[in-house]
Specification:
- This protein is of the alpha+beta class.
- The protein has one domain (2-203, 268-347): Penicillin V Acylase, Chain A, CATH 3.60.60.10.
- The chain has 6 helices and 20 strands.
- The strands form 5 sheets. Strands 14-13-12-9-8-7-4-20 form an 8-stranded antiparallel β-sheet, with helices on one face. Strands 2-3-17-18-19 form a 5-stranded antiparallel β-sheet. A 3-stranded mixed β-sheet has the order 1-5-6, with helices on one face.
- The longest helix is centred in the C-terminal third of the chain and has 14 residues, at 250-263.
Length: 362
């Protein structure tokens, strides 16, 4: 089966996406003592509900890329591997996912710094939309090396110039991690990312260099010291982190994520690392109100952080929770027969309201 999107729906999705102000995502990486690598991330979109879904894609499922101008006749691609994707706006736009071979892939907003090549109609058979790159690569590749080779064979373009560009994180079951950024009209830049942190603009090397501005930070308490005749002492725990940036800009979130991740105790199992990942990312939930001028805050969503996910690539499990339901849900790919399962796209939340458990006291 081939899945396409009507021009009317495409235009509606893009016009909504272009108007949204929140270009924020935060990604971290944790390694458990049993040898698993867990990647976790948030996704933010502050202007409206992304209507996110989880997508079950079987082996052999055929899709076709969308193109600029509402065209729906871009590159055809068929999934060699089955996968689970977490999509935004439209089911074709997979923002995070995991395939049966253990490849994890996700996109992060990258405004003002990314620049894809210009769309050339004569190359449409090998042209893919940036928002569908994750879906194609999850169905096509098992390793980082395969991802690198595959991307070199296609032309990645932007569906609508009003929308933000993105960059991508890929992790295979060995724990190897790379970031792909496309700049200067189509130049592919792959960066090994042993630190495992990713946010948004500027580029990854800039963020890694910027960490040097925070060489003074360390875990634990700051020692007391004399300032003339006055003794200076900490007011509470964690004074070694005094000065860590607290705003929600990408550079500040990168610094916080790097230090929270680096100081987190290593967990025994992948499942415990997953729970730790969600706990750390609690610190990156963005309230809707801070991203808007006074009086212009949308009233229809509870948070700009629409969902948070964690992926155990080697274990074959993807987890998520949403702004409507903080309960962690999981999908175990090992229990899915991707040769027989049918394609489906299911809303992440059956009811858009946080469940509250009533405790009866007798």
């Amino acid at each position: 089966m081939r899945k396409t999107l009507s021009i009317t729906l495409l235009a509606a999705a893009l016009s909504g996406a272009a108007a949204l102000p929140a270009d924020a995502c935060t990604g971290i990486t944790l390694k458990s003592k049993d040898g698993h690598t867990v990647v976790a991330r948030t996704i933010e979109w502050g202007g409206s509900d992304l209507n996110s879904q989880y997508v079950v894609v079987p082996r052999g499922y055929r899709q076709q890329s969308l193109l600029p101008g509402g065209q729906t006749d871009g590159m055809n691609f068929t999934a060699r591997y089955g996968y689970i994707g977490l999509s935004v706006e439209q089911e074709q736009f997979v923002a995070e996912g995991l395939n049966e071979a253990g490849l994890s892939a996700g996109l992060f907003y990258f405004p003002a710094y990314g620049q894809y090549e210009a769309y050339a109609p004569e190359k449409k058979a090998s042209t893919i939309a940036d928002l569908q790159l994750v879906a194609w690569l999850l169905g096509e590749c098992a390793t980082i090396d395969e991802v690198k080779e595959a991307v070199r064979q296609v032309h990645v373009v932007q569906i609508d110039p009003r929308a933000s560009t993105v960059h991508w994180r890929f992790v295979d079951k060995t724990g190897r991690q790379v970031v792909l950024e496309i700049v200067d009209g189509g130049e592919l830049r792959f960066y090994d990312n042993p630190l495992g942190v990713l946010t948004n603009s500027p580029d990854l090397p800039w963020h890694l260099t910027n960490l040097n501005n925070y060489v003074n930070l360390y875990p634990g308490p700051a020692p007391a010291q004399q300032l003339g005749s006055a003794e200076l002492k900490q007011f509470g725990a964690g004074s070694g982190f005094l000065g860590i940036p607290g705003d929600v800009t990408p550079p500040s979130r990168f610094v916080r994520a790097a230090f929270y991740q680096a100081t987190a105790p290593q967990q025994d199992t992948a499942e415990k690392a997953v729970l730790q990942g969600f706990q750390i990312l609690n610190n990156f939930d963005i309230p809707v109100g801070i991203e808007f001028a006074g009086g212009k805050v949308p009233a229809d969503i509870p948070s700009a952080t629409q969902w948070t996910s964690a992926t155990d690539a080697a274990g074959g499990i993807i987890y998520f929770r949403t702004m409507y339901n903080s309960r962690i849900r999981s999908i175990d790919l090992n229990r899915i027969d991707f040769a027989r399962v049918s394609y489906r796209a299911v809303p992440m939340d059956k009811a858009k309201a946080q469940p509250i458990e009533d405790i009866t006291i007798e």
